[in-house]
């Protein structure tokens, strides 16, 4: 009898654990599908009133992913990602192309989804089916509290491949959207498709390697955040100090969304001033606290950024 | 008379100003300093048309306020625009239109610029422009870090500027 009781308690616990639900399994499969599938297609990325179109060829072979991304409108730009190495190709004279954002396909850079953590901060529910880029997709919505935006994902019903995603504000306005318009999942990718067309012409390149991840630590920072939206924790930190003052940078994440806090300068007597800018889902709040310049940037609502700034204190550094 | 310069300014607002545009703007401004306020008006109108969001919460810049000391990574043309006050005239609007940017290392030497005293003393202009440059830099930093946890990512990693070399 007792063992039955244990069993039923255990079953109840398993049932209650949110990340065991199908929606979460689909999301986990989604991240993997995005990275571990060969495909080719075109997608658009819309941020606020700005839209860009891209083509992508992604080959996954023997545990290795190689991907070629091309910007189809505006400046010519090709990005080759080979493992942890990224190379940007663009025609000589169009360096301005790199002053614009170069979106990677969503979740293509995310090593692992921390479902446990995301599950603590968001509720997932399936909200119907739709057709996207010729595929049937199920829609998964992730909704958190008022301090963060909701996200919506369209997953292909067979493979859980991500066909469309959106960041949505509390009033339902779509702030950012990523959507495939044409897609072949499981395509056979020839080596020639992964050769940038700008490779042999006169081009400038940028090469990047993914930097090693340090364990973040802000224990000895001069600034202190006395309030964080629930579920956000430190993901990255960086600081230095010289004659121009202090520089303290932190990035926080709740598993899905993130924001960064920058403290810079010297404690100068300055008028209270602040400015706020929005680009799609990105909020940027610039203000000053105790004379230091404080900037908060992230995919978070304005009121979240404001509250973080209000609850921030900075001690004068010991020089 | 300054129709060409206005076109150049328009290109500047769109982030498409060429070297010639910059030269043209600087020249026009030398001839007619009042153009600056006219351009400021234009930039505000344009931002309004594009429906860009700009909310100033107690934005009370004061010319007497000392500029905050900040390390600024300047590209050559940026510095010249800064000194001419052009960028500052539109800084408020540029902030709203700011995009994630890959900060380019100066690929050309910074050119010496003739700066008139009233321009360089424009603390307001300096401060606003520095704020904008700083925001650009922060946006890129944030994007890099966010890309490792966030689905909607932009810049994947720290980028190093290189001249093309055949591999």
Secondary structure topology:
The complex is a heterodimer of chains A (319) and B (167).
Chain A: H1 2-16, H2 22-35, E1 39-47, E2 50-61, E3 64-71, E4 77-82, E5 85-91, H3 115-121, E6 123-132, E7 135-143, E8 150-156, E9 162-168, E10 174-185, E11 203-209, E12 223-225, E13 233-242, E14 245-253, E15 258-265, E16 274-279, E17 282-289, E18 292-298, H4 302-310, E19 312-314
Chain B: H1 3-13, H2 19-31, H3 35-49, E1 54-57, H4 76-84, H5 86-89, H6 91-97, H7 117-120, H8 123-146, E2 160-162
Helix pairs in contact in B: 1-2, 2-4, 6-8
How would you sum up this structure, described in words?
- The complex is a heterodimer of chains A (319) and B (167).
- By secondary structure, chain A is mainly β.
- Chain A has helices at residues 2-16, 22-35, 115-121, 302-310; strands spanning 39-47, 50-61, 64-71, 77-82, 85-91, 123-132, 135-143, 150-156, 162-168, 174-185, 203-209, 223-225, 233-242, 245-253, 258-265, 274-279, 282-289, 292-298, 312-314.
- Chain A folds into two domains: 2-209, Lipoprotein localisation LolA/LolB/LppX (outer membrane lipoprotein receptor (LolB), chain A, Clam), CATH 2.50.20.10; 223-314, 2-Layer Sandwich (Phosphorylase Kinase, domain 1).
- Chain A has an eleven-stranded antiparallel beta sheet. Chain A has a six-stranded antiparallel beta sheet with strand order 13-14-15-18-17-16, with helices on one face.
- In chain A, a hairpin with a 6-residue loop joins strand 7 and strand 8.
- The longest helix of chain A has 15 residues, at 2-16.
- The relative contact order of chain A is 0.14.
- Chain B is mainly alpha-helical and 167 residues long.
- Chain B has one domain (3-146).
- Chain B is built from eight helices and two strands, in the order αααβαααααβ.
- In chain B, helix 2 (19-31) packs parallel to helix 4 (76-84) and helix 6 (91-97) runs parallel beside helix 8.
- In chain B, 44% of the residues are buried.
- At the A-B interface, strand 11, strand 14, strand 15, strand 16 and strand 17 of A face strand 1, helix 6, helix 8 and strand 2 of B.
